[in-house]
Amino acid sequence: MLTRLLIFLSEISPWARRVLWRWWYNRLARRLVTDRWTFMNYGLKWPGSEEPVRLAVEDEPDRYCVQLYHRVAVPGRLAGKEVLEVGSGRGGGAAFVARHHAPAGITGVDFSPQAVALCQQRHRVPNLRFQVGDAERLPFPDGSFDAVINVESSHCYGSMESFLREVGRVLRPGGLFLFADFRGVEEMGKLEALLKSQAAMEGMEREDITPMVVSALKADDERKRALIGAQIPAGERARFEEFAGLNGSQVQRGFESRAMIYHRFVLRRKRVAA
User: How far apart are the first and last CA of the chain?
Assistant: First the structure.
C-alpha cells in the first residue's frame, strides 16, 4: 500500500515525490540505528560469466550492495581524484569507494541530517567526509570534482533537470558522472532522452543491469529479512520489507517482470574548447 501511494504521488507531482521520499528516508534513518545496515541499494549479483569482486572481510556481509557500487565506480578510474557522492544515505557506498578505489578525497552529501550524523559516527576513513546538502542545489563551487557518483537516489528528486545541471556545474571539464538508478519503462525512456539533451555532458556508456539486480534481491533476501526482523517493530515490518525489495514484494516483482528497469550510465563533462 505504501509503495503504491508513493508511486502514484510521484507520478502526479514532483513536489510530492520530493516531500514523501524525504519523509521516508528520515524515518529510515531514525528507525535503523544499527551499524549493520550501511547500504540501502538493491544490490547486484555478478553474472556467472564474470569473476566476483574480491572484497575485504568486513565488506562480505554487504557483498551484493558493494558490487553495485563497484560496477558503477570502476569506469571512473577514481584513484587520486576528488569525488562527490550525491545521495550518500547511510554511507556504506562512499566508505567502500574511499577504501577500495583510492580517491584523493570523497565527499558524501545527503539531505537527511540524521543520515549524515550516522555516517560521521560510523565511517572513520581519512579521505572521506559527509555533509548535509541538496542534490538540486549542491553546496560547492563550480568545477570542484573530477567525478560525481549517484546510486539509486535520483528517483526521489523533485527535479531531475535541476540535479543534472548541478552535476554539470560541479564537475571539472572531462570529469565523469557515474550514475545508476531504476525507473518504469516509459520513465526510463524519458530519463535517457533527458541525459542526451544535456549540453554540458556527453554520453559514454549505458548498461541494463536489471537481471543482475533481480539476482541480487533473491540472493540477499535472507540477510535483509533478518535485519528487518531484528530492528523493526512487527507492525511496521511489511512496509520495510516492501521497500527493501524482498522476495514477493511489488518491487521485486516489478524488476522481475521488467515493469521497472535498472540502468547504469557513464557521462562525461565536455572539455572547454581551447
Answer: 55
Which residues on adjacent β-strands are paired with residue 107? 84, 129
Counting every residue written for the chain, the total comes to 274
Q: How many CB atoms lie within 10 A of CB 189?
A: 12
Among residues 163, 164, 165, 172, which one has the least CA distance to residue 142? 172
> What's the average model confidence in pLDDT over 86-106?
96
Contact indicator for 6, 21 with CB cutoff of 8 Å: yes
User: 11-20, 140-149, 159-168, 235-244: which has the minimum mean pLDDT?
Assistant: 11-20
Catalytic (active site) residue 152:
yes
Query: Which residues pair with residue 269 across a beta bridge?
Result: 201
Domains and CATH numbers, the chain: 34-211+257-269 (3.40.50.150)
Instruction: Cite the DSSP H helix spans in 13-104.
Output: 14-31, 63-73, 92-100
Cell numbers for 229: 526482523
List 85, 136, 152, 241, catalytic entry: 152
SS3 174: strand
What's the predicted TM-score (pTM) here? Answer: 0.89
